[in-house]
Specification:
Elements lengths: L2 H14 L6 H16 L22 H15 L4 E7 L3 E6 L2 E6 L10
Antiparallel strand pairs: 1-2, 2-3
Helix pairs in contact: 1-2
Length: 113
């Protein structure tokens, strides 16, 4: 870009901001701007995160059998639409037109300090 155009633009911008500058100040600012344009800005590109490996969930045979036992028991009662949502965790059903679900949680052993 032409130095004179930069000087004129700087003077116009400063005057519009209510802080007019002299030509000498505008020339100095223009020189700094021209030098700054010559400097290359090397920044490191963002590294893509590696996709996480999907964690394999260990099957708990006790939980699975208990959920299936609950399903059989609910099917013999007045409950409607019994569905196992998660083989080891959740079962859903409907009673008198309202939806319900049960979640089975296995608690870990407490750590001894």
């Amino acid at each position: 870009m032409d130095k004179e155009k930069i000087i004129a633009r700087i003077m116009k911008e400063c005057e519009a901001d209510g802080e007019p500058v002299t030509r000498a100040e505008a020339e100095e600012m223009a020189e700094m701007e021209i030098k700054a344009n010559g400097i290359k800005n090397y920044t490191q590109a963002e590294v893509e995160k590696k996709p996480r490996k999907k964690r394999e969930v260990k099957k708990d045979p006790i939980k699975i059998s208990f959920i299936h036992y609950l399903e059989e028991w609910l099917l013999t009662s007045t409950v409607e639409d019994v569905k196992i949502l998660n083989e080891q965790k959740e079962i859903a059903f409907r009673i008198n037109g309202e939806d319900y679900s049960l979640s089975l949680i296995k608690h870990r052993k407490k750590k001894e300090v």
